[in-house]
Amino acid sequence: xxxxxxxxxxxxxxxxxxxxxxxxxxxxxxxxxxxxxxxxxxxxxxxxxxxxxxxxxxxxxxxxxxxxxxxxxxxxxxxxxxxxxxxxxxxxxxxxxxxxxxxxxxxxxxxxxxxxxxxxxxxxxxxxxxxxxxxxxxxxxxxxxxxxxxxxxxxxxxxxxxxxxxxxxxxxxxxxxxxxxxxxxxxxxxxxxxxxxxxxxxxxxxxxxxxxxxxxxxxxxxxxxxxxxxxxxxxxxxxxxxxxxxxxxxxxxxxxxxxxxxxxxxxxxxxxxxxxxxxxxxxxxxxxxxxxxxxxxxxxxx
Length: 302
What we know:
9 helices, single chain, two-stranded antiparallel ribbon, 11-stranded mixed beta sheet, Spore Coat Polysaccharide Biosynthesis Protein SpsA, Chain A, 302 residues, alpha/beta
């Protein structure tokens, strides 16, 4: 396989034996970048992949302005790089990476996460030992303070809502976990047909987790593995306002997909009120236009 590939949007999680027999790679580390070349070298160096023949790194660039720089860095570091000519979002980008992966486990990591290869291997081992099919680390900020990176999936407020997790000592079993660093069995990822490509950004991992639970899969956070990330710093030129609107779009898509159409319409009304009144959406007209385009892009596919 050449290290630089331009690909279509198909999903095939690799040709190795699904139980790992005859597979030369144990884990496939996949990161999706968008204008992220400024942090990519540091991300790869921190992984400490030199000499780790059982693992591979796949970098998917999603239509970045700095795609050529990303390609050069990835090739210099021995990674496989997959280039998309346009920004296709996190879910579709991750699916492209998974289509080139040969590992028994897929580890999706944002490029602004500080983590080393040995931590990812340990994460997979914990998952295997405990029959967990999707597992993530505890997530801390750059200052070392732990964040809550697990919880319940989205539900309308009038539906029964629990905490969404149970504490089992070194493991926290949850309905959903942070997608910033997450390992999943390639077999289960294949059975789920990967991320739903109709989610452009936000809630795509929650949707994946919901579908995994429907297959009686197990999702957990490992307390013994801790990674650090500032969060939201992986892409240049992306504003907090834009990111907040995309979060509302993902939320709306999720409700339409997993609940009734009436509840989906209620979610639209609730999110429009947020755009009207919350300060972070102060460029109201721009936010309305972005949200409307997102609804046409996502809800139309319901």
